[in-house]
Specification:
9 helices, about 240 residues
Length: about 240
């Protein structure tokens, strides 16, 4: 990013923090995933959102410099928001090649997966993605009218994108969103500008209804564009 992008990004990051403060959410950023796992296990329990495999420090190489998490708390100190990002160096392979071998490392949490019958379908976007990529997941907002339906997802997602951009300058950011949630406009509200539909099909043990997910992604130029979109406009819906 240019110095102007960095300056504008810092300005917008401060603006996002002020907007979250006004919405009665205090955010904390960390890179100790053992601590994050404890927070999820003790404070997100009962909300149908166990810790996802991509951010489980017992099975992933998560250390300062290649991952961070964001949590939000209400004025009483209760957990109301989580998300996390992880840097992956693809080297000379494309994201589609990487996911052919590793898609099983990104399952939806909390459901028994039939891995043998689940599949990844490479899309055109993933074939064009190379270099250093940031995986974005763990996005959760507590089912509370004080925080749901108020446009906060727009702000917290940009907060993570800006933080990743300024820390890592990734070539791309990507994530997976189930198609049922995609139809509610979540990807657009988070800021994602591209999608490979039907990228993942997760078969669930004991069910004939798979979970179908889109691969959503942005290039660095897309992030630069998002950085310059006023937060007030993004969170107005």
């Amino acid at each position: 990013m240019s110095i102007n992008d960095i300056y504008d990004g810092a300005q917008m990051l401060c603006r996002a923090i002020r907007m979250l403060d006004e919405a009665q959410m205090t955010v904390t950023v960390g890179d100790d995933f053992a601590e994050y796992a404890r927070i999820v296990a003790t404070e997100r329990v009962g909300h149908g959102a166990p810790l996802g495999l991509p951010f489980n420090p017992e099975v992933q190489d998560l250390r300062p410099g290649n991952g961070f998490w964001v949590i939000g708390r209400n004025p009483q100190g209760d957990l109301v928001h989580t998300q996390a990002m992880r840097l992956i160096d693809l080297g000379h392979q494309s994201l589609s090649e990487y996911l052919r071998q590793n898609f099983r490392a990104f399952p939806p949490p909390g459901v028994p997966i039939d891995y043998a019958n689940s599949a990844y379908n490479p899309g055109p976007g993933a074939r064009r993605i190379f270099g250093r990529v940031a995986y974005h997941g763990e996005v959760w907002i507590k089912d509370d009218p004080a925080y749901r339906g108020r446009g906060l997802i727009d702000i917290v997602a940009r907060f993570a994108f800006l933080s990743a951009s300024m820390a890592w300058k990734p070539d791309f950011v990507y994530g997976f969103i189930p198609r049922g949630i995609m139809r509610r406009g979540l990807a657009e509200r988070e800021g994602y500008m591209h999608s490979d539909p039907f990228a993942l099909s997760w078969c669930i043990e004991g069910s004939n209804q798979p979970i179908i997910a889109n691969l959503v992604w942005m290039a660095l130029d897309d992030i630069r564009y998002v950085v310059h979109v006023p937060l007030d406009e993004m969170s107005a819906a």
